[in-house]
Every structure is written in C-alpha cells, then in structure tokens.
Write a structure and sequence with these properties.
Layout (H helix, E strand, L loop, with lengths): L1 H27 L5 H5 L8 H10 L6 H13 L13 H36 L4 H15 L2 H15 L11 H36 L2 H8 L4 H39 L4 H10 L3 H29 L1 H7 L1
C-alpha cells in the first residue's frame, strides 16, 4: 500500500510539473503584449519605455528562463505580484478562494443527493415509465450548457418570482446559502445527469450478481436486498465518479461566477485574461489543475478501499 501511494505521489508531482509548463507557455502564447499593458497603453509609448518595462518584469528573457524563475518562486509560495492590482497574487487568490469552495461544495451536495437519488429510483423502477422519465430528464439536463441554465434560472427564480438574488455571494451561513442556490444549481445540473446514469448502471450490475439472486431465492425482503447488497456494492463507482466530477467543477465555476457576478477565482481568472494579468491567470490555472490532480489521486487511492473487487484485481 505504501509503495503504491509513493508511486501515485511521484506521478502527481510529475503531472503537476508538466501541467505547470503547459499553463505558463499557454498564457504567454495568448494574443496581446503584457508589456504594453504595464506601460499604460500604446498612447505615447516609446521603444525606450517598452524596453524598460520588459527588462523590469523580465519579459525580455527566453521563455524557459522565465518559466524557471516563476516555478522557483511558486515552490517558495511566491506567486508574484498582479500587473493590474499591484497586490500579491497569493492575497488575491486567498481572498476569493473560499467563495469558490463554498460554491463547489454546495453544487457537490446538490448533484450527489439528487443524482444518486434519481439513479437509485431509476434502477429500482427499471424498464418502467419512472425509469424512462429519469433517463429523459437527466439527458435533457446534461444537454443544457451551464450559462444557458444560469440565464434560465435567473429569469425564472430571480427576476419573475424573486425567490433568489441574482448576484453576489451573501454573508453568513443563511445569506451565503440563499445567494449561492441558483449558481450551485446551474453548476450541478450537468453533473447530476452523469451521477444518476452511473448510479443506475452500477446498481444494475450489482443486482445481477449471484449473491443477490441467492438472497432473493432465500426470501430476503427486496428493500433489504437493495440496501444491504445492491447499493453497498455499487458505492465504489458512484463515489469515484462523484470525486472526479467535483474535481472538474473548479473549472466550471469560471462561467457560473461570471454569469452571477460572484467574486471567486473563476471571475478573477476571466478578468486576468482580459487584462493580460499573467501572474494572476497562471496562479489560478495552476490552482485549478492542482485541485483536480490532487482529488483524482485521492479517489484513485481510496477506490480499492471502497470496492474490494478493484483491490483484488490490482493485487
């Protein structure tokens, strides 16, 4: 077990190293010259002033040298200073990250509870109109992009009915819950469909196993069979998929936070890209990639503990 965890940690670090270079190179390959922005625009910009700005921010050095300097600072927890705000990038990210975490946590609760519940209902009522209704409803939910769902929810529940606020993240537990309900629902709709499908299929596979047939033949009540044998054996793939979907939600917050005017790292990333604020964009992207890689690694490590069949296969 320790050897496997060590291999996974080594793989995690190698993936992070490769991802960090891709992020750094991709941001610098984006259109626009950050030196022009730092110099205050093209109006009255002289070649001497442009060269001075490039030298001051090390923008005149080769890409590999700039990457090495940036990576060395990141390893020492120095993410640089924002071109736009002139503040430390770490302070900007730290101030906004809790809001994004709250949004992702709320959306995770929604898609886990509603998605698993819908999947269980479809599996129990398999090949009936209930199953068809759940599959059809989740297919429709999966086909609606997050920004379209956000616009529809704002129009109905925010503007017409006035049940929920349409912008901001609120204060206190009740206020935050109230403000983040529509954004979390927009974020959770697509994930809800995925989780319900995985739950339905995992329960169908578990229900077809020999020990479940033996339990039915021995007269065990159907409710106990579903709870003790079918659902328990299906938990491995369900929890694994919930972890993977939750990890991918950090990137999904970019659209939802912008649509609802929420001050999280998603909206911070959009603003940084629009203003060529490279240090902020690189830091937020690196944080998103790190979060995804860490969560997927944890899921991979925990999965065999939840499903003995996976542990046996790997051993």
């Amino acid at each position: 077990m320790l050897a496997r965890i060590s291999r996974r940690l080594a793989g995690l670090l190698a993936t992070l190293f490769a991802a960090s270079f891709v992020i750094f190179a991709a941001v610098y390959a984006a259109p626009g010259d950050p030196a022009v922005f730092l110099a205050g625009g093209r109006d009255k910009l002289t070649p001497e002033r442009l060269a001075q700005v490039r030298s001051q921010y090390h923008l005149d050095e080769p890409l590999v040298v700039q990457y090495g300097r940036w990576l060395w600072d990141c390893v020492h927890f120095d993410l640089g200073r924002s071109f736009k705000y002139s503040d430390q990038v770490a302070d900007l990210v730290t101030a906004r990250f809790p809001t994004t975490l709250q949004l992702v946590a709320y959306a995770t609760v929604l898609f886990a509870v509603l998605g698993v519940g819908a999947g269980i209902l479809a599996a129990v009522k398999r090949s009936t109109w209930v199953d068809s209704a759940v599959v059809g409803g989740t297919t429709l939910a999966a086909s609606v992009p997050s920004f379209v769902a956000a616009i529809a929810l704002v129009s109905l529940f925010g503007v017409q009915l006035g049940w929920f606020p349409v912008s901001g993240s609120g204060e206190g537990f009740g206020g935050t819950l109230h403000h983040l309900t529509l954004p979390a629902l927009s974020l959770a709709l697509g994930a809800l469909a995925i989780i319900s499908r995985v739950t339905r299929q995992a329960m169908a596979d578990a229900a077809a196993s020999d020990h479940v047939e033996a339990a039915r033949a021995s007269g065990v009540p159907e409710r106990d069979i579903i709870r003790r044998h079918v659902l328990r054996n299906a938990l491995g793939p369900i929890i694994t998929m919930c972890g993977l979907v939750m990890a991918g939600m950090l990137a999904g917050t970019v659209v939802v936070e912008t649509a609802f005017g929420i001050s999280g790292i998603g909206s911070l990333l959009v603003g940084a890209i629009n203003t060529h604020d490279f240090p902020v964009a690189q830091a937020v992207l690196l944080l998103m990639v790190t979060g995804y890689i860490v969560v997927t690694t944890l899921v991979d490590v925990v999965h065999p503990l939840l499903d003995p069949r996976v542990k046996e296969a790997r051993s």
